[in-house]
Amino acid sequence: MRRVARRRPPVVRRSRAGLGLAMLTPAAILLAALILVPVCYSAYLALYRWQLIDINGPKAFAGLANFTQLFHDATLRDAVRNTVVYVVICVTVELVLGFAVAVALYDITKGRRLANSLILLPMIVTPVVTALLWRYLLDPQFGLVSQVLAAFGRPGIDWFGSTSLALPGLMLIDVWQWTPFVVLVLHAGMLAIPEERLEAAAVDGAGRVRRLRHIVAPALVPQILLVLLFRTMDTYRIFDTVYVLTKGGPGDSTTTLGLYAYRTGFSFMNMGYAMVLSLFILITISVISVFYLVLLRRRGVLRK
Q1: Is residue 21 a part of any domain in this protein?
Q2: What is the reported pTM?
Q3: Which domain holds residue 228?
């Protein structure tokens, strides 16, 4: 006889849910405190004129003066433009390259593990070490790239000393280091696609491009949205690579939001306005993240 599974009484289900909630509450309170306390303190400091050089001195109340300064800050406009260009180009190139490499890895039958290991090497190196490595590789006199160009009678290129090449040079480094992350996520998504669907499409006469367009790409939409979410947040707050290689120069050609907030607080000693810039970064990246999370929920990746 077929056994009928007995449903647990509502009291048991409620008691287990209550136990789980009670076990999660301490960690949730600690996490909320670690997030909310710094944010609230930053919002408090944003209302004052506070010079870091006079850290023990009285703070002059400024009201909304620091916030209104945002609308008249030309450097902030440059930083926003550089950050948006950096995010859009890096994320787009990484997504396209990552998809292409993931498709190539999917077709490999021998040596897939070795290929995965080699592809993931750039992502293992810390961003600061990566920046130092590329600074020597792209050095206009002694770098490996300059030596190769000299062998063909070409002069070396001063990537980080040119206002037109510094930002593309930083993008090149980001694409080199973080495309493996995109490859990893998309390749895992491809391996989860049932082979029967691809084989049936091939039997029906669908070519490689049509299978990628109508089967693989739609199946990878959740993974693509996750990649866009993580990489957008990561590139939006870029700081370490820019600080090591250019410090925002030449001029303000590579000044990003994170670097500008850091310079305002620790170079110009204006901590009140630096807190406003930090809140601006937090709010804008939160809005972008919520947009992606809504898309993920609509795709059924996240539960309501």
Answers
A1: no
A2: 0.88
A3: 38-298
Find out whether 46 and 276 touch, Cβ atoms under 8 Å: yes
Please choose, from the candidates 284, 188, 198, the residue with its C-alpha nearest in 3D space to the C-alpha of residue 227. Answer: 188
Q: What is the CATH number of the domain that holds 91?
A: 1.10.3720.10
How many domains does the chain contain in total?
Answer: 1
* In a domain? residue 51: yes
176 found inside a domain = yes
- Within-domain flag for 29: no
> How would you write the pLDDT of the chain (304 residues) with one tens digit per residue?
445 445 555 555 566 667 778 888 888 899 888 888 989 999 998 999 888 777 777 788 888 999 999 999 999 999 999 999 999 999 999 999 999 999 988 878 777 778 878 888 898 888 999 999 999 998 888 888 888 888 888 888 888 988 999 999 999 999 999 999 999 999 989 988 888 888 788 887 878 888 888 888 888 998 999 999 999 999 999 999 999 999 998 989 999 999 999 999 999 989 999 999 999 999 999 999 999 888 888 877 666 5
